[in-house]
Amino acid sequence: MLGPDHPRVLSTRASLAHWRGEAGDAAGTVAALEQVLADRIRVLGPDHPDTLSTRGNLAYWRGETGDGAGALTAYEDLLTDQEQVLGPDHPDTLSTRGNLAYWRGETGDGAGAITAYEDLLTDRERVLGPDHPDTLGARINLVGMLVKRGRQLVNTNSSSPPTIEGSVKKMPDDREPQGPSWFGQALTCFQGALDLTDPDKDPGSYGVILHDIADTHRAVGDNPQAAAYYRQSIEYKYRADSPADLATTMIAFGDCLIDCGEPVEALAALDQAGEIIGQVREATRQAVGFRDLGLAYERLGNRGIKDAYTKALNNYQASLKLINPEIESGSYATVLRDIGDVHKAQGRLSEAHASYKEALEHLRRHDGSERVMASLLISLGRISRQIGTLGGNAPPDGESGQQIESTGNPRNSEDQQQNGG
Question: Using 50, 70 and 90 to split pLDDT, how confident is the model at 19?
């Protein structure tokens, strides 16, 4: 028999702990690895490679339990010891630096994560060369972090966009930028990601980043510049085999053209997006695409474009057919409300009332929808009041809906979906 302290036995215990986590018991894995670590320190010493490896596994599983701060601290301590014992260029040391960068980002230090990934990429290229798989992985991680950070900046600040001023500046270390600096910081992130992405080898990712740049310009109201970047994004996304991503950008492009005062070109872009959505294989993404397209057509309808409301209804109905009302009652109700809004804008009060009422029935099955239900109840009450003023009879289609109550764009900002790239 080998005995409980034999290296093979300790390795088996470490493997068993790992698979316990893979089976869903992350907390059990942490407890088991803590015991393995204590025994390895006792038997092998604190500087043995197996001991250091166990510390890395333990840090990973701490993160998997949701203890991001604990994982970050564990990786920081491990890196200090690995640099002393193994050297700064050892593969395990470099891997720990990558994990440390990741958890910095996960715990809110986006700027620190980017700096860590940049330094790691430089050292990976120096030690392994630019084409080594680990170097390529470091580059991909950096691109992902740059895009994530850029989106955080845009989403956090776009509710009260500043004026575009000055040139793009180097991103400072503060985590929550104040004033207009967020715009330059976001563009710095996206441009950095763009520079690290090969447009010929990965046109899809290149197009996604261009879409993010367009979203950034749109967030500060620079719609012509946003439209230009959406155009570029579409060109690259056409080269990639992802109709869902392409359709997303085409809808955003059409919606942006509406704000640019180009309804005819917007209509053409949206019609083309509809053809592409038909090629999307995943039902959920197709349903979202049809709904987003309906929202854009509805905006055109609000501007008096002929047949735009009809196209909006057709897309909402297509989205509705792809949603399971029993499983996704909230989404189903949202599209029903969209349909009611279009009917209301056209003066079809009876149809609007029926859609709002059906949406309310589905919302009652959806937990956490009190705020949406309140808004919908208000819309339903107003429609009922309008019908009541007409003696209980809705007017003929299109006669008086807009005159009774001007709706403008019936969308609330909280209902708009982000058109991520």
Answer: very high
Rounded alpha-carbon distances, angstroms, from residue 137 to 116, 121, 128, 144, 294? 14, 9, 12, 11, 39
Q: Tens digits of per-residue pLDDT, 278-336?
A: 999 999 999 999 999 999 999 999 999 999 999 999 999 999 999 999 999 999 999 99
For 113-136, write each residue's pLDDT tens digit: 999 999 999 999 999 999 999 999
Say what the pLDDT of residue 176 is. 43
End-to-end CA distance of the chain: 58
Q: Please give the Cα distance from 358 to 381 (Å, whole number).
A: 14
Whole-angstrom distance, CA of residue 19 vs CA of residue 5: 21
Spatial separation of the C-alpha atoms in residues 311 and 222, rounded to whole Å: 28
71 phi, psi to nearest 5 deg = -65, -45
The three-state secondary structure class of 179 is coil
**Which tokens sit at 275?**
């053809």
Q: What CA–CA distance (Å, rounded) separates 372 from 320?
A: 18
Q: Residue 402: which H helix or E strand, with range?
A: helix 401-404
| CA dist 198 → 135, 203, 204 (Å) | 15, 7, 10
Share the mean pLDDT of the chain: 88
DSSP category for residue 2: -
Instruction: Look at residues 55, 62, 61, 59 and name the one whose alpha carbon lies nearest to residue 19.
Output: 61
pLDDT of res. 268: 96
**CA–CA gap between residue 249 and residue 233 (Å, rounded):** 7
Q: Cα–Cα distance between 387 and 19 in angstroms, integer? A: 64
Joined together, the tokens standing for residue 94 give: 């470099």
User: What are the E-state strand segments in 143-242?
Assistant: none
**Cα(295)–Cα(211) distance, rounded to whole angstroms?**
19
Give the HSE-up count for residue 129: Cα atoms under 13 Å, Cβ half-sphere: 3
Residue 133, burial from CB neighbour count under 10 angstroms (0-12, 13-18, 19+): exposed
Q: What is the pLDDT of residue 5?
A: 87
